[in-house]
């Protein structure tokens, strides 16, 4: 009996002005507890794989236990089939432990994609696939390099993505996730899928000051990624683009300095590319950004929407509970539900995905 655990962190993308560029791995981990009985030659389970699940979304329609439909196992099958393995080894059991909230802007789908790619590598014995090559597989499925880059490599990362040709994503065997257009993909035609092009995306890891913690305020409602994308304009005013470019040039330096400079970080966290347009989906977001500042709140550094939201990410060095309470009060004030349930966590930059044997 072979067993191992895959651990993949959640992530916050679009940090401040870094829309689709900058991501931060955070210390909440998706875990896959995998066992394989290689002594068995056959299995009664579809594709030789049995899935069990516990955690966020347990028992809901959002979580499929069918290995042909579950995003994690579909991604693993894609990796296996690119390497001429049609199914999992006989008697593979994947037990998923997921504490990452679904649809809340903490990279749940990105973590699932990264964990799935690692699962394919491990069960297939594909030792030739290094992290950079695994990144290529991730980016054939999840086209947000900031989420998957942070989840795969860990820490505070900047990423960029090379454009794919239409023929690169035309095959229905590729298990496209919700951020890519239909067809959903992942269909087993019996053909070998095309291997991803090399060097689809690249990343650089920035320094993160040890004093800075991330306070995640997680409201109890869902904002689907496709809906959050749909409210963004096709074109932007030059002044707004320049505004973001000025701040994104400051942000990695500001967050890497020790001790942190609160005023510099507060300035560098501002955004005009996505947050103003998502106010309609997250009532109170603009008021939170405008109300919170280092001058009025000791320990506070800056605040931004986490991913597509609705989670709000506040960076701070102290007074975490006080900061969370203020942000929750503003969100409730501007929400139709004045008693909106909100959870908050103090998180730190996390190490990247890894396998424990």
UniProtKB/TrEMBL annotation:
User: GHMP kinase C-terminal domain spans which residues?
Assistant: 265-319
Q: Look up the EC number in the record and give it.
A: 2.7.1.39
Q: Which residues form the GHMP kinase N-terminal domain?
A: 70-155
Any Gene Ontology biological process: sterol biosynthetic process
Instruction: Kindly state which keywords UniProt assigns to this record, in alphabetical order.
Output: Amino-acid biosynthesis, ATP-binding, Kinase, Lipid biosynthesis, Lipid metabolism, Nucleotide-binding, Steroid biosynthesis, Steroid metabolism, Sterol biosynthesis, Sterol metabolism, Threonine biosynthesis, Transferase
What Gene3D superfamilies does the record tag this protein with?
A: 3.30.230.10, GHMP kinase, C-terminal domain
InterPro entries this protein is in?
GHMP_kinase_C_dom, GHMP_kinase_C_sf, GHMP_kinase_N_dom, GHMP_knse_ATP-bd_CS, Homoserine_kinase, Ribosomal_Su5_D2-typ_SF, Ribsml_uS5_D2-typ_fold_subgr
* Catalytic activity reported: L-homoserine + ATP = O-phospho-L-homoserine + ADP + H(+)
| Gene Ontology molecular function, alphabetical | ATP binding; homoserine kinase activity
Spell out the NCBIfam families in the cross-references: thrB (TIGR00191)
Q: Per its UniProt record, what PANTHER family does this chain match? A: HOMOSERINE KINASE, HOMOSERINE/4-DIPHOSPHOCYTIDYL-2-C-METHYL-D-ERYTHRITOL KINASE
Job description of the protein: Commits homoserine to the threonine biosynthesis pathway by catalyzing its O-phosphorylation.
Listed name of the protein = Homoserine kinase
Q: Which organism is it from?
A: Hirsutella minnesotensis 3608
């Amino acid at each position: 009996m072979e067993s191992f655990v895959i651990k993949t962190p959640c992530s916050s993308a679009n940090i401040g002005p870094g829309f689709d560029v900058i991501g931060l791995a955070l210390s909440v981990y998706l875990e896959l507890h995998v066992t394989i009985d290689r002594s068995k030659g056959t299995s009664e389970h579809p594709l030789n794989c049995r899935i069990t699940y516990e955690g966020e979304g347990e028992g809901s329609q959002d979580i499929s236990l069918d290995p042909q439909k579950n995003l994690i196992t579909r991604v693993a099958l894609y990796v296996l089939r690119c390497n001429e393995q049609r199914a999992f080894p006989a008697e593979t059991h994947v037990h998923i432990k997921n504490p990452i909230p679904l649809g809340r802007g903490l990279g749940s789908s990105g973590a699932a994609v990264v964990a799935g790619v690692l699962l394919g590598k491990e069960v297939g014995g594909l030792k030739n696939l290094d992290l950079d090559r695994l990144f290529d597989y991730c980016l054939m499925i999840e086209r947000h390099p900031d989420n998957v880059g942070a989840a795969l490599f860990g820490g505070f990362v900047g990423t960029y993505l090379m454009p794919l040709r239409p023929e690169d994503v035309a095959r229905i065997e590729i298990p496209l996730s919700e951020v890519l257009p239909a067809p959903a993909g992942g269909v087993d035609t019996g053909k070998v899928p095309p291997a991803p092009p090399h060097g689809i995306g690249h990343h650089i890891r920035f320094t993160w000051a040890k004093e800075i913690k991330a306070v995640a305020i997680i409201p109890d409602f869902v904002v689907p990624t496709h809906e959050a994308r749909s409210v963004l304009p096709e074109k932007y005013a030059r002044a707004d683009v320049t505004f973001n470019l000025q701040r994104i040039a400051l942000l990695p330096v500001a967050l890497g300095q020790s001790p942190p400079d609160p005023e510099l970080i507060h300035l560098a966290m501002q955004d005009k590319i996505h947050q103003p347009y998502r106010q309609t989906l997250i009532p109170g977001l603009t008021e939170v950004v405008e109300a919170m500042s280092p001058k009025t709140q000791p320990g506070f550094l800056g605040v931004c929407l986490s991913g597509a939201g609705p989670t709000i990410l506040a960076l701070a060095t102290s007074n975490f509970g006080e900061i969370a309470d203020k942000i929750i009060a503003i969100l409730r004030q501007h929400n139709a539900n004045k008693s909106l349930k909100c959870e908050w966590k103090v998180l730190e930059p996390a190490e990247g995905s890894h396998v424990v044997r």
